[in-house]
Write the structure tokens for this entry.
Amino acid sequence: MKLKKVIRIRSVLLAKTGLRIGMSRDQMAIGDLDNPVIRNPLTDEPYIPGSSLKGKLRYLLEWSLGGDYILKAKDNHVYASPDPKDPVARIFGLAPGNDEASLRVARERGPTRLLVRDAYLLEDSKRELERTTARSGLYTEIKQEVFIPRLGGYANPRTTERVPAGARFGVEMAYRVLEDLDEEYFGKYLLRALELLEMDGLGGHISRGYGQVYFLHPEKPLEAQEGLPLRDRLLLEEVALEG
């Protein structure tokens, strides 16, 4: 097994509806938001963690394949396939068990093929958000929702922070090709997972309209890409590592 090439995937992730990837918080002060978004601690700007994007892609692919990926996942852990050619484990990685059989499968399977970088707001998108968002400089909107008791009583309002529709993030992934099978899996499974993400959503509250995303080619006019196949909306660069 040898690293033959890397397929670099670049795209622009467009938030077609409000996008909320939340952060955990240990303490909450009076007047704080109920549900803040995750932010870069150095710039205070919202961003999309690579772990969130990669995790959602894996989740959608597993559900689309069904079977053991769903039925044999136990105790909040993903399904550990004993097959070294398992596409989910090869693409997204899988921590091996400590027994000899699991270690043998992990050695035969090789390293994780897909790397997903954190995605940050594009500069032109930041300028647009500075002009339009109520909380200038924070690039977000505050959405207030109300829980309505079914049997009377007072409505319970809650505030949720999200990145407004129209925001754009720069996405970059790297896919390692070690064997011919990896090239087959790239088109068959990874692109499929990206298509599923466009049909599903990213972040929280998807069932309430949040998180619809769309991938755009970073070097083509935005208005000319609506309806194009996904592969035509990605910038794919192959870096050969022969020799």
Summary: The longest helix spans residues 180-199. The chain has a mean pLDDT of 89. Strands lie at 5-15, 47-48, 114-116, 119-121, 141-147, 156-162, 168-177, 213-216, 235-240. The two ends are 14 Å apart (CA to CA).
